[in-house]
Write a structure and sequence with these properties.
The structure holds two protein chains of two kinds. Chain A has 20 helices and 18 strands. Chain A is of the alpha+beta class. Chain B folds into three domains: 216 residues, Uridine Diphospho-n-acetylenolpyruvylglucosamine Reductase, domain 3 (2-Layer Sandwich), CATH 3.30.465; 84 residues, no CATH class; 84 residues, Alpha-Beta Plaits. Helices cover 32% and strands 25% of the residues of chain B. Chain B has 15 helices and 18 strands. Chain B starts with 5 loop residues before the first strand and ends in a 15-residue tail after the last helix. Classes of the chains: A alpha+beta, B alpha+beta. Chains A and B meet through β9, α9, α10, α12 and α18 of A and β8, α7, β10, α10 and β18 of B.
């Protein structure tokens, strides 16, 4: 398919030195941690944003922080780009490599180092999966709150890189609100510890800055995360509506009434059909829109809260109300929701948008989203976190049809601009990656971006860390290596192409 | 510095112009909101004061979106009454420093975020920084910069919002802040366990936080401070646990928490009104608001380390203490000298954290680092970050550290 999004032009000098670089890397870590055969590099050529692929120069999978430090120092000394990688589940292309870059994957660093219930904290290596933290403390009545849909696979390191959210962050917040400390390797191989079991920091809030920095400020190798007491019980309830507008208005009124459930998830008819066919969760098929509202606590608490929610839903003409009657049913309801992306992938190729809008704009943005996809002759399924305005339109297309692929990307760009224009942002929890990089100027002024890039340069003066991501290629400032400045030309070409698609 | 050199910008553009001129002239500025926390931090060396007192007003507030935007100089009292009119609140419960520091003036919303000021509910609802969604600020070069926005979830670009929160005006002059607000709980109670010593209290609080009862405040008030709370605690040491929410829910949780705590000591349940006043007094450090000549530390450590710190200090020096945040926030009133080296040495030995000298005279604050000194690598990083926001070093120079 035609590439709307440009990468930095590969540095041919670095590629030319590949054998020597590999030999050098072999001095820095064990053979089992170094991948250089083309056949074995293929699994690393993209992430969950599969429209774009680039083969890396080599992949290293260190087993210790010291090995990460050695490789990073080597790359910085030799001006070689680095792409950090967790499990490769990024939906925005945050982990897609480039031909002149070394991928540093943290998947071998997958140990839970310490569980400390008295201080409600766990110290883990960056490569542990999100779900394994909750699993490790489940029997003792605790859990780790952020729950991205990819939680079976995604790593805590990747979660920190993207400041991941999930369905339950309406109540519990996203990664940044549940992260207490990190051990991070800086560009020059130095190792710093930031935060820990004490709350807040005394100097600048570096932890807050690092969380969501998309692997551009350093490589996190360990994290201290907040553990919370598990609620006594949880009950998801299905509310079916005749129109998406009624469902959207119901969400606004629930929140406006001062009721904050743990989660409010929204699905439109296409999404309901896709998920039901896959998970057989018992979703109502005769409605246009579905809300999954989850409440938690003791039975008395859940009853009290649900009574109020049901009253509001009735005011909006709710057609179906179905409470889960057992843990199995509750699990099925969530299975349907969490498999939405996978289930969609079985019937079509799709790209998933991630714009967030103010709650009052939900209905308007939903209607406009349909108009946009209609205009391009594409189908869209909406399944998203309604309680915090985080939209996830899935634009369906056929990847074997180059024209349709292009239209899908263009429709996606239009939808994201719509979210920004409605007072929202480009991405609520997936990150900018390469996917939304060229739209950054729609949300931020040159001064805004310049300030961010200057901060970035304070952490990575040569711009070696994940350099093709987040910031538009043209107009980059700060100190940059020759490799990058030579790329101004390519950046401009990329901008021209993007400009054309927006027109 | 003479008082005549106070500038009162009335718009963001005014702020940009003033900072730009000061930067060109190389003249440092003290950035001030309501000035109620001017005595917190190192005395800064500035040629003039930039007061945000006239940059006021709520700019956006739709209660059903749970978000408010306001200009930085807006008095906190104005924000809180607008929220109260809609039965909402700032969930992070910002401390009012006036009683502790013995000062007058009106705290501003910009000051609250510039200092990342939080209160007892921090353990459940996050700090001020967790509730700040967007900022508009003027950097040290006089450029207007925005970061974040007015939506709950936003990972678009680097999170400069977090960096600005708690930077005490050294990275930029906040002009507008956008923050999350939440419904006020329908009711609140406090479960109080009397007679526990500090170590027993730490265990009780940890046990309460491990239960699924959603404790929204966990403090321990030892015998030495209990009498400062009037009749509420009957002059006995009290370990207090706050529960908030819908009435039927609070009833159920109270019952469960009381059953657990009864195994540890005598339990009483304080009603909503008493609860409100008690937690306001804990938030504002009322026990130490009397003898204002004595230095006061605010120490943040792992919750299980708080009482160990105090026990260790008591063997060396005269100190009074009470605990918030499950024991992890220790308020220390020193009998005589601040004993900075001792306090910080013990904090480090007990697993780390940070100690801030919240109250001391200006001479002491100029001599003793008010904020916890950073390890060399982090200090160098902070320096590089500062240079990227304020290359001329004109914004609140010296407020956070002697060299920054």
């Amino acid at each position: 398919m035609p590439d709307l999004i440009a990468f930095l032009e590969p540095d041919l000098a670095v590629i030319g030195r590949r054998p020597a670089i590999i030999a050098d890397l072999a001095q820095l870590l064990p053979e089992s941690c170094l991948i250089t055969e083309e056949r074995e590099l293929v699994p690393f050529d993209t992430d969950a944003f599969v429209s774009y692929r680039r083969m890396p120069l080599a992949v290293v999978l260190p087993e210790t922080t010291a090995q990460v430090a050695a490789v990073l120092k080597y790359c910085n000394d030799n001006a070689i780009s680095v792409v950090p990688r967790g499990a490769g589940t990024s939906l925005s292309g945050g982990a897609i490599p480039q031909e002149d870059a070394i991928v540093i994957g943290v998947s071998k660093m997958n140990q839970i180092l310490e569980v400390d219930y008295a201080n409600r904290a766990a110290r883990v290596q960056a490569g542990v999966t999100n779900i394994s933290i909750s699993q490790a403390v489940d029997a003792d009545g605790f859990f780790y709150a952020p729950d991205p849909s990819s939680q079976l696979a995604c790593t805590i390191g990747g979660n920190i890189g993207m400041n991941s959210g999930g369905a339950h962050c309406l109540k519990y917040g996203v990664t940044t609100n549940n992260l207490m400390g990190v051990r991070m390797v800086m560009f020059d191989g130095s190792i710093v510890d930031i935060g820990g079991k004490a709350l807040d920091s005394s100097g600048y809030d570096l932890l807050g800055l690092i969380c969501g920095s998309e692997g551009q400020l350093g490589i996190v190798t360990e994290a201290t995360v907040r553990l919370l007491a598990k609620p006594e019980g949880a009950r998801p309830v299905l509310f079916g509506f005749e129109t998406s507008v009624a469902a959207g208005a119901c969400v606004t009124d629930i929140i406006g009434a001062g009721i904050i459930p743990v989660a409010i998830e929204f699905m439109d008819k296409p999404a309901i059909e896709i998920c039901e066919a896959f998970a057989h969760a018992g979703y109502p098929m005769d409605v246009e829109a579905l809300l999954i509202v989850e409440v938690e606590g003791s039975d008395a608490e859940m009853d009290a809260m649900l009574a109020r929610i049901i009253e509001i839903a009735r005011r909006h003409g709710v057609k179906t109300i179905r409470e889960s009657q057992s843990a199995t049913e509750a699990a099925l309801i969530w299975k349907g929701r969490k498999s939405a992306f996978g289930a969609t992938g079985r019937i079509a190729d799709y790209i998933c948008m991630d714009g967030t809008v103010p709650l009052g704009q939900l209905s308007y943005v939903l209607a406009k989203t349909s108009e946009i996809t209609d205009r391009y002759g594409l189908r869209v399924a909406n399944v998203f976190h309604a309680g915090d305005g985080n939209m996830h339109p899935l634009i369906l297309f056929d990847a074997n049809d180059p024209e349709e692929s292009l239209k899908a990307e263009m429709a996606g760009n239009d939808i994201l601009k719509l979210c920004v224009d409605a007072g929202g942002c480009l991405t609520g929890e997936h990150g900018v990656g390469i996917e939304k990089r060229d739209l950054m100027r729609h949300q931020y002024s040159d001064a805004d971006l310049a300030q961010q890039m200057r901060v970035r340069a304070a952490f990575d003066p040569k711009w070696i860390l994940n350099p093709s991501k987040v910031f538009p290629l043209e107009g980059r400032n700060g100190s940059q290596t020759g490799n990058q400045s030579a790329l101004a030309e390519e950046g401009k070409a990329g901008a021209a192409r993007t400009g054309k698609t927006a027109a | 510095m003479s008082l005549s050199e106070i500038q009162h910008p009335e718009s963001e553009d005014d702020v940009a112009r003033i900072v730009s001129q000061a930067n060109a002239a190389g003249l440092p500025i003290e950035v001030r909101g309501g000035g109620t926390r001017a005595g917190l931090g190192r005395p800064s060396q500035a040629a003039s004061v930039l007061s945000l007192a006239r940059l006021t007003g709520i700019t956006n507030y739709d209660p059903s979106e749970l978000v408010m935007a306001a200009r930085a100089g807006t008095p906190l009292s104005e924000i809180e009454s607008a929220l109260a009119a809609n039965n909402q609140m700032l969930t992070f419960e910002p401390m009012d420093h006036r009683p502790l520091l013995g000062v007058d003036g009106e705290p501003t919303i910009g000051g609250v975020f510039a200092g990342n000021i939080s209160g007892p509910r921090r353990i459940q609802a996050g700090a001020a920084r967790d509730n700040l969604l967007g900022v508009r600020f003027v950097n040290g070069s006089g450029e207007i910069v925005k970061s974040g926005g007015r939506v709950m979830k936003n990972v678009t670009g680097l999170d400069l919002v977090k960096l600005l929160a708690g930077s005490w005006g050294t990275l930029g002059v906040l002009c507008e802040v956008i923050f999350k607000v939440l419904p006020r709980p329908e009711t609140a109670v406090t479960v109080a366990v009397s007679g526990l010593n500090d170590a027993e209290a730490a265990e009780a609080m940890a046990a309460a936080m491990a239960m699924s009862v959603e404790v929204s405040g966990a403090a321990h008030l030892p015998l030495s401070v209990a009498y400062r709370f009037g009749d509420t605690l009957k002059g006995e040491a009290a370990t207090v646990l706050r529960l908030e929410g819908l009435t039927p829910s609070v009833d159920v949780r109270t019952e469960r928490l009381v059953a657990e705590m009864r195994r540890r000591g005598e339990v009483s349940v304080l009603d909503a009104e008493v609860t409100r006043d008690l937690w306001r007094d804990i938030r504002d450090v009322k026990p130490f608001a009397v003898q204002r000549a004595k230095p006061v530390w605010r120490v943040s450590v792992a919750p299980s380390a708080g009482h160990q710190l105090v026990a260790a200090l008591r063997l060396k020096t005269g100190v009074d203490a009470f605990y918030d945040w499950q024991g992890g926030l220790v308020w220390l009133q020193m009998e005589a000298e601040p004993e900075a080296d001792l306090v910080r040495q013990y904090v480090k030995a007990l697993g780390g954290g940070h100690a801030t000298l919240v109250r001391a005279d200006a001479a002491t604050r100029a001599a003793v680092p008010v904020f916890e000194p950073q390890p060399q690598a982090l200090d160098a990083l902070a320096r590089r970050i500062k240079d990227q926001f304020d290359p001329g070093g004109i914004l609140n120079p010296g407020r956070m550290t002697a060299t920054m």
